[in-house]
Specification:
The complex is a heterodimer. Among the domains of chain A are: 74-155 and 211-279, no CATH class; 160-201, no CATH class. The longest helix of chain A is centred in the last third of the chain and has 26 residues, at 243-268. Chain A is mainly α. In chain A, 58% of the residues lie in helices and 1% in strands. The two termini of chain A are 47 Å apart. By secondary structure, chain B is an all-alpha fold. Chain B folds into 2 domains: 7-48, no CATH class; 58-241, Cytochrome Bc1 Complex, Chain C (Up-down Bundle), CATH 1.20.810.10. The chains are: A mainly alpha, B mainly alpha. At the A-B interface, β1, α2, α3, α4 and α5 of A face α3, β1, α4, α6 and α7 of B. The structure holds protoporphyrin IX containing FE. Residues 64, 67-69, 71-72, 128, 131-132, 135, 140-141, 145, 148-149, 152-153, 155-156, 159, 230, 233, 237, 243-244 of chain B line the site of protoporphyrin IX containing FE.
């Protein structure tokens, strides 16, 4: 990995200046007609032909008529919201459905006001290590997402709470439940009971509804901030990152997470939004 | 050749290009010299979005991949196919689905029309994301283009909303349950969530009031908004000095003090 990220950032314009003799000057001005318009025409035509061919051979889906009494299982959002739908399985809906997408939009909009140094413009990946940073951070993020989804699906945060919770159960319900022996279906009881104790100890009114705070808010937030943070730390070990490179790392995190979550919800979630293999998932469930 | 050195085709060409009709439409003669190449772009309402000259680096296909232009082209294609769809589509819970079936079975090219609209919409969402990604990775959001990047983020958001509002219109199972899930999320917005959800649905569940609201958003309000914001986007591209080029980079000293750097 140490070879993957060169230690010193080098803006690529230095490379550009040393371009091969006889190569065309990118700053030279050419006429829009024909140099740009011809490209636009050919691109639009090729693209439209491709799209038309696709529309000739593939039909847009039309499911049975809407029926408010009959919920398909699972009901899936359009593909560009599937990533959010996957997030919804792992955290509080206000966090997954409102705060995270809001943070993404605000975060994206803020990029140019954080990274305002006029260097590395018009150069793909800007610096000699921009591409490596993208690939490394993208890969780290994707792996984290897959592991976390599997962890939450099969293990979850709850077992780690159950030793605590069962002792509470012992005291407040009086059963002799050993850690881990609480029936699966009763997890909500564990949580409820745990939070009752915490609330009583801290003297917090019941109405605050603290039960889901831990697994619905705290744990997800820690990971969503922790992953990019540790990825930045990791890259930083190979030399100080410029602001531009930090942005590149964060964008890679955004893109990789978005793509991975979308693929998981689209291809691996079937009946009951449980994990299946893609060939077991019916794209149009009834 | 003969005939004063002019072939038949050349004479036909001359007759067409020099006709009063064509001259009245296009003032500029065929752009085969420098002056006309400038004029043809300046004098055309569609082409004058472009500057008359562009830098070689900016027209490199591997620079922009034509992604912004194709996003715009998708929007135009969607407007065209969308208007045709409006001739057949009835935004009523009783008739919407039937009108989709009728469109597919008994309208000439109806199925193709619907396919084009649907797939172009999906393509546009992908193209806009790719365009944003190209702008990001070429550092083209940096000053002086920071505002246009923000305008772009708005365009992305509007594109998603347009696509999502269209999703309800066929009134099939896919449609109402996706919208039920989607508007359910809106209910979790702190404090105003329930009000927002009620506004989006026009009630407590996806029904006729929802359909007419989303239809109006889809065919009127959001397209108008997108057109307005796109106009700003294109205007700003010109005002920000056209497409980014390496000339936008500053040397070390000037880069360190952006406020000093001339815009
Ligand atoms: C409906 C959606 C959009 C349309 C139709 C559109 C159209 C365009 C077009 C035609 C260009 C010219 C160069 C090119 O094709 O790359 C452009 C440039 C640009 N776009 Fe967009 N765009 C859209 C969305 C966005 C988004 C989502 C962003 C970023 C968040 C964005 C940011 C920019 C910036 C900063 C430039 C200047 C790039 C440069 O100077 O190199 N646009 N846009």
């Amino acid at each position: 990995m140490s070879a993957a990220i060169p230690p010193e950032p080098r803006f690529r314009e230095d490379v550009r200046v040393a371009r091969a003799p006889g190569a065309l000057d990118p700053q030279e001005k050419v006429f829009t007609w024909p140099h740009l318009l011809s490209i636009e025409l050919v691109a639009a035509l090729l693209y439209t032909v491709g799209l038309s061919l696709f529309a000739i051979f593939v039909n847009a889906p039309l499911e049975p008529m809407a029926n408010g009494q009959h919920t398909p299982n699972p009901a899936k959002a359009p593909w560009y919201f599937l990533g959010l739908q996957e997030l919804l399985l792992h955290m509080h809906p206000a966090l997954a459905g409102v705060l995270v997408p809001g943070a993404v939009l605000v975060g994206l909009a803020t990029i140019p006001f954080v990274d305002k140094e006029r260097k590395g413009i018009a150069i793909w990946f800007s610096t000699s290590r921009g591409l490596s940073i993208s690939l490394v951070v993208g890969l780290i993020s994707a792996i984290w997402v897959v592991l976390l989804v599997m962890f939450d699906n099969w293990v979850g945060v709850r077992p780690f709470m159950s030793p605590l919770v069962s002792s509470i159960l012992n005291s407040c319900v009086g059963t002799k439940a050993a850690p881990g022996l609480i029936p699966q279906g009763l997890w909500f009881m564990q949580e409820e009971c745990g939070s009752v104790l915490i609330r009583h100890t801290l003297g917090i009114p019941d109405a605050w509804g603290l039960a889901p705070v831990w697994n619905q808010w705290m744990v997800p937030i820690v990971f969503m901030i922790g992953i990019p943070f540790t990825a930045l730390q990791f890259c930083g070990r190979y030399g100080r990152l410029t602001v531009r490179e930090q942005m590149i790392a964060l964008y890679a995190y955004f893109l990789a997470t978005f793509i991975t979550l979308t693929i998981i919800m689209a291809g691996f979630r079937g009946f009951g939004e449980r994990l299946y293999w893609p060939w077991q998932v019916n794209p149009f469930p009834d | 050749m003969g005939n004063g050195g002019k072939s038949f085709l050349q004479r036909v060409g001359h007759w067409v290009w020099e006709s009063r009709l064509l001259r009245s439409i296009y003032r500029t003669r065929y752009p085969d010299n420098q002056r006309n190449r400038v004029m043809v772009v300046m004098n055309s309402v569609a082409l004058h979005l472009h500057p008359t000259k562009v830098s070689r680096g900016a027209v490199r296909i591997t620079y922009t991949w034509g992604l912004g232009g194709l996003s715009l082209w998708m929007f135009l294609l969607l407007t065209f196919t969308g208007v045709l769809l409006m001739f057949y589509y009835i935004p009523s819970t009783n008739q919407a689905y039937q009108s989709m079936l009728a469109l597919q079975s008994s309208v000439t090219l109806g199925q193709f029309l619907r396919n084009m609209h649907r797939f172009a919409a999906q393509a546009m969402v992908i193209l806009v994301i790719l365009h944003m990604t190209r702008v990001f990775y070429t550092g083209a959001y940096k000053p002086p283009r920071e505002f246009n990047w923000v305008v772009g983020v708005t365009l992305w958001f509007l594109t998603l909303l347009l696509s999502f509002t269209g999703y309800l219109l066929p009134w099939d199972q896919l449609a109402i349950w996706a919208i039920t899930v989607g508007t359910g999320i809106a209910g979790y917005v702190p404090f105003i969530g329930k009000t927002v959800q009620y506004m989006l649905l026009g009630g407590y569940q996806v029904d006729q009031p929802t359909l007419i609201r989303w239809y109006t958003l889809h065919v009127f309000l959001l397209p108008i908004a997108l057109i307005a914001v796109m106009a700003v986007h294109f205007w700003r591209i010109r005002k920000d000095g056209n497409l980014s080029t390496p000339a936008d980079n500053l040397d070390d000293e000037a880069a360190a003090t952006p406020q000093v750097a001339a815009r």
